Each structure stands twice: as C-alpha cells, then as structure tokens.
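User: structure tokens for this one?
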Amino acid sequence: MSFLIRYVADIAPWIYAFCGLVAVYQLYKTWMVRVERRQAVFSLEREKALNDLYNIFLTAMLLLVVMGATYFVSTTLAAAVEPLVEDARAPTPQAAFIPTPTNTPIPATPTPTATPTFTPRPFAPVERPLVVNTPTPEAPPVPPASCPDPRAVITSPGNGAVVQGILTFTGTAQHEQFDYYKLEYAPGAGAEQGFAWFAGGQEPVSNGFLGNLNTPALANGAYTVQLVVVDRTGNFPPPCRVNIIVQN
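Assistant:
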C-alpha cells in the first residue's frame, strides 16, 4: 500500500496535466453546447443540450475529485509513509560470517610438571575481644494531656512532647448536643489565653484523627494546644490542654 501511495505521488504531475487537458476539452464542449442550444428550434434538441451540460458538470466534479485525491495522496499520505518506504528499500544486513574454530591437536605425551611440596605450619589462635551488650536506657514516658472532661480528650501527643514537622493530633471530641470542635494553640507552656485556631471539624470523633499542626510555620519553643468541643447552644465543657515543645 505504501508503494502505491508513493507511485501516485511520483506521477501526480501527469495526473494534473491529464485533468487539465480534459478540463480544457470540457470548456470547449460547453461552448459548443451553448451555441447549439441557442440555435435549437425543437424541444428535443434543447433537451439534448441540457443533458450534455449535465454530463459536462458531472465530468467537472469527477476531475475535481481526482485532483483533490491526488493532492491528498501526494502530500499528506506520501509524507506519512515515507519512513516505511525507506525501511522497505533499505538492504537487509547479512549475518556476519563466523569462522569455524579449528581443533588444535593434543600432544600424545604430556610434559610432566613438578609437584610442589606443602609444609604445614602451626598457627596461633586469634583472640577476639569480649563484646558486652549494654542496654540502651529507655526514654522516660511522656505524661498524658490534662483533660478534665472525657468528652474532650487529646491522646496524642503527650504533655511536654518535643515535636517537629507536621504534628498529628488524635483523641476524642464528643458531646450530647455536639455542634463542632476546634484545636487552638498559644505560645508558652500552660497558656490561658491568646489561642489561635488551626484545625477542627463538624463531626464527632471517638479516639481518632483530630487535626494537623504545621510546626515549621511556628518559632521554636513551648506552646499550649487545647481541644474545645462546642455544643449547639454555644457552650463547651472544660477544654483539654497539652504542652508541646517545637524544635525544627
């Protein structure tokens, strides 16, 4: 198929020339038919002239289709199949000639070689140092957060934890008339005011994810984080507070 498209592209000038000659002839034929129609006396002659004009019109349409198809094949399709034609015309590489190895004759009588004499030597045992496993002291446990009401509890992180990066808070935020909960922070350990919101939710949480704190956005130092659970009347039980130390 690619060779046929390439062949049409090669003879495209001849196709255009042939269509041009046919078009010139059709123009001459149109002029002759119009003269005959003006000179026609009978309706049969006029009908014949109309049929001739209709045939000329069909021929013109056919020429346009042929020229358009030739142009499309010689430009778009020929450019698309050019790599395929080049690959088909490229010579196929022949397999490299691999000479057959020639077997070297083995001498009938091998040359004797001297056998080395091995003399064993005593060796002293290697003394290895005694390794004593020293247990690594465990870090002291972090005390839990101060949560006076079981409906607002922060289970992680613990009180006095040293944190960095994105800090995740988990715990419980529930109420009989639950509306929403919020997490807030304030600079300093044991802060009582100056809290700023950083996370929250409108669905109760039971020992699950509460929110994240982006500690790289804060200066290093001690902070107080509190969990507040608000009911539908706008009131809330005593918040749960935890002290953390940011060290990024």
